[in-house]
Amino acid sequence: MNYLTLSTELLILLSVRSWLVHGASSQLTYKVTDPITGNPLQCDRCPPGTFLRASCSSIKKSECAPCPQDSFTELWNYMGRCLRCGVCGRNQVVKKGCTANSDCQCECKEGYFYHQDYDMCVRHSECPSGQGVLTKGTAERDTVCSVCSEDTFSDISSTHHNCTQHKSCSDAGLQLVLRGSSWHDSMCANCQQLKDGAEYLKEIIPSFFIHHKMNIKRLRRIVLRLPSEDGKKPRESLELNFSELHSRICSWVSSATAAQIQQLPAIVNKTGETTASEKLQHKLNSIETHLTEHCHSKIYSNVIES
Fold it and tell me: What ranges cover the TNFR-Cys repeats (predicted)?
């Protein structure tokens, strides 16, 4: 039994060795007809990085020549010329340059990754507000996002921004007037220097419009209706894209009065964004309630005590 097993193993080993010898040999030669004698002939192939300038005969060996610049051969060959070096495609950069014995290697440029379904490099996904980057995108993989955990937030769309910890009002000696959410920070007030509730709401209005995605036509109508001191309506708002519209809102918020901010929920409602309008009004109501409960009552108590 042991003898049979040993014989079988020996037979397999000899077969593998024979395949390796003859297989390797066939890779290094090719068959031709001798132009002088007319007899079959085995010619040597050319090594990688070269090409066959002239075939062998009964009186001379194969003549190989180096690949010219911007061309290559990766295998033993008997080609009459080298292959042209490849060119990186759209949104790709050279990872490794072309050499005489290897083609160039490409990879997606910064900010892009290879998408197998499209067979091309596409831009990394942005994590929307309310989510942070769990894993940054690479040339091979897209961005991985994660919803901000409790007590953290993200108020921008980004391919690299992580969720940020909500600020602590008490640590700064301030009063919490609006608890932070996944898309905006906590809002604090100094009860000794109170402002109108709408003034505090200003802090999150730009983030509000980024987080609550709206149809561009409705967003244009909102921008068109924003109240201004001179009463003029900027008609060019009808042509602005999303980025320009958000920029216009930020600019308006920075100069708007408390009375104008108070009008915003109603303006949003008139464009058909009822849910967004209600959420914005709810934020404003929460701020004013907290100001009344915590700051006004504290001021009143201080007055009584004095």
Answer: 66-106, 107-145
CA–CA distance, 148 with 156 (Å, rounded to integer):
12
Report the alpha-carbon angle 291-296-301, nearest 5: 145
- In eight-state DSSP terms, residue 92 is E
DSSP string, 224-248: HH---SS----GGGGG--HHHHHHH
What tokens appear for 295 in the block? 């700051």
Pairing of strands 152-153, 164-165: antiparallel
> In angstroms, rounded to a whole number, what is the distance separating the alpha carbons of residues 158 and 135?
12
| Structure tokens that stand for 240 in this block | 């602005």
CB-count burial class (<10 Å; 0-12, 13-18, 19+) for 73: buried
Token pair 């309310």 is found at 130
Contact yes or no for 153/161 (Cβ under 8 A)? no
Task: Say whether pTM exceeds 0.85.
Answer: no
Which H or E run includes 94?
Answer: strand 92-96
Among 121, 162, 156, CA closest to 142: 121
Q: What is the pLDDT of residue 36?
A: 87
Q: In the numeric block, which tokens belong to residue 30?
A: 């090719």
Query: Which residue do the tokens 């007030």 mark?
Result: 189
Distance CA 51, CA 198 (A): 78
Q: How many CA atoms lie within 13 A of 133 on its CB side?
A: 16
Residue 133 contacts residue 159 (beta carbons within 8 Å): yes
Q: What percent of the chain has pLDDT over 90?
A: 79
Q: What is the pLDDT of residue 175?
A: 94
* Distance in angstroms (rounded) separating the CA atoms of residues 29 and 130: 64
